[in-house]
């Protein structure tokens, strides 16, 4: 399949999930914003007609106009999977669908909808006890978040599509961003997309700005508009998303410095750290009825949130500045609750 055919298939509505069609001029208009050196509308029509002949596209004649949509299951693997998929593959796909509940996989998984449907149909057609075990497997496993469940704001799919496309093709991205302190902002800005990161149910775009040394984080649900531009940019060789996230700890929010954190836990509150240490150099010991834990961590707002979650079941022994800060907070809380 040629590049232009792939672009046409991408913009067409999918018959599996949408009932509408696009006219040839509508297809052409959608391609103008994403395809450089776009051929003429007549050439696009010829590509559409050829895709119809190949069984990948459906066409209806409405008066003198031809309207088009992608045939259900006509994308990628789904076009061939119907008669080839076995029970192992069907189970893998259904497990992926069931447990891809976080926002990024869910949005991307829309492209796999035809495969998921084929897999579900395959698992329903059981001929023996072994196949029935396959079909029951997905209902025997569950995933639950360890934190308090919140209803996170939804990301508009068209915004996610534009952002991920610009990221993949290393194109500049025009966005209108509305942070909490400026929720009515309508001013567009051009950014250079470096990566997507999901943190606790929220999805962030890490993007550079021409003339600025350091990237900026943008929450995708706060975008009021996002458009992948035709102009490309050179992805910086000096930037590595994994380093930005895991080593520089930018998503710990308001990172300050590394500190030696010393904690004293009560009532078993910190026992999970014996199996999931808070740092590579963690040391721990039980003294009387308390668990003493220490390790080198990054001082940040996220660390403070974590410590507050233990309430009276943790005492910060060091560093002294953090102990004093949390002691002042505790005194303020005591004053609030004493009223």
From TrEMBL:
Q: Which residues form the WCX domain?
A: 259-334
Show the PANTHER family listed in the entry: PROTEIN PAFC, PTHR34580
Q: What is this protein called?
A: WYL domain-containing protein
Recorded source organism is Paraburkholderia steynii
Tell me where on the tree of life, at the top rank, the source sits.
Bacteria
Provide the taxonomic classification.
Bacteria, Pseudomonadati, Pseudomonadota, Betaproteobacteria, Burkholderiales
InterPro entries attached here? CBASS_pafABC_assoc_protein, WCX_dom, WH-like_DNA-bd_sf, WH_DNA-bd_sf, WYL_dom
Question: Short name of one Pfam family for this protein?
Answer: WYL
Domain WYL, by residue range, is 158-227
Q: Write the signal peptide boundaries.
A: none
Q: Which PROSITE patterns match?
A: WYL
